[in-house]
């Protein structure tokens, strides 16, 4: 057997230092998903195969080197891309009303869990008059290089035949947009092909849609510099380099009902039979990132069907963001 010390940028691995930042209240435990201990990586939702691939690529060296965290992140993305189903969701849901559809409009839409890969299977979601989109997909002021929804602008809905056009908005007393009124372009008139498609989640209580997420936790680098031990870069010492804003929490997020199908694939219905940890429930929320179910979640003692999940507390950890085009 051979071994070498492995250091990664933007973190510390010393147990003494990890205990110090825990005692300082920066983290709650040694499996905090912002850390790079094995329990922390597991809780975050990093697959074992990604860690093994990363270590295999590095090989063994006696040199005391610091590896760019981006190399590990590449293995995580590649691994998750191969094993995770795709779902639609919104971190900051914004209500959309399709004005020309009746109040009781209901369609069932069959969606693949992974486009162009039938081995992942399919699931159905409702499509109704009231939808939720992510607030980041709408703005009041349009611009030439902006292709998503804005007043007077048309945008496509993922996996839906017809696009929607924004006709009006409603605001609260502070001027914040609370509702977007749109026209569903199913009348056969000539509508330009949209340049962008956005994700959506239907409001359909009969189908328990949307799924309300108690918390979505977004993790950022725990340290501001790549090497917090470098006294030239961090003259105040490694502890002064801690990023106190490394955790961002969303409390109003929604996801589509296909999420329960993913849970049922990994978590036994009866609590007494649950030998797997929740972090095995991983999914890609389209255009947002890869997520895993955190152990702080609470599922019912027994769920035989979708309705059996009523009263669940769902906490999602973002494993890693999607790699975006630098020109996007």
UniProtKB/TrEMBL annotation:
<keyword id="KW-0436">Ligase</keyword>
<protein>
    <submittedName>
        <fullName>Glutaminyl-tRNA synthetase</fullName>
        <ecNumber>6.1.1.18</ecNumber>
    </submittedName>
</protein>
């Amino acid at each position: 057997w051979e071994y070498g010390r492995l250091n990664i940028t933007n973190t510390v691995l010393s147990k003494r230092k990890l205990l110090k930042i825990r005692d300082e209240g920066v983290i709650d435990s040694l499996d905090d998903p912002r850390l790079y201990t094995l329990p922390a990586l597991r809780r975050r939702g990093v697959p074992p195969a990604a860690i093994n691939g990363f270590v295999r690529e590095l090989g063994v060296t006696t040199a005391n080197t610091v590896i760019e965290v981006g190399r590990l992140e590449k293995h995580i993305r590649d691994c998750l891309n191969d094993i995770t189903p795709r779902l639609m969701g919104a971190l900051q849901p914004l209500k959309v009303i399709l004005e020309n559809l009746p109040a009781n409009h209901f369609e069932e839409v069959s969606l693949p869990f992974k486009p162009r890969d039938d081995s992942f299977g399919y699931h159905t979601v409702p499509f109704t008059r009231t939808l939720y989109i992510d607030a980041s997909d709408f703005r009041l002021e349009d611009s030439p290089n902006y292709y998503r929804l804005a007043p007077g602008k048309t945008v496509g809905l993922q996996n839906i035949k017809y696009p929607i056009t924004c006709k009006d908005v409603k605001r609260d007393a502070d001027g914040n947009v609370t509702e977007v009124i749109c026209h569903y372009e199913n009348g056969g008139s000539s509508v330009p092909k949209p340049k962008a498609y956005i994700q959506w989640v239907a409001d359909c209580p009969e189908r328990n849609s949307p799924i309300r997420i108690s918390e979505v936790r977004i993790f950022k680098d725990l340290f501001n510099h790549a090497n917090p031990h470098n006294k030239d870069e961090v003259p105040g010492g490694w502890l002064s380099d801690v990023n106190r804003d490394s955790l961002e929490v969303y409390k109003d997020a929604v996801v589509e009902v296909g999420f329960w199908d993913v849970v049922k694939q990994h978590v036994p219905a009866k609590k007494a039979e649950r030998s797997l940890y929740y972090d095995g429930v991983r999914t890609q929320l389209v255009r947002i990132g890869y997520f895993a179910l955190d152990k702080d979640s609470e599922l019912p003692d027994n769920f035989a069907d979708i309705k059996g999940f009523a009263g669940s507390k769902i906490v999602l950890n973002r494993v890693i963001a999607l790699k975006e085009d630098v020109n996007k």
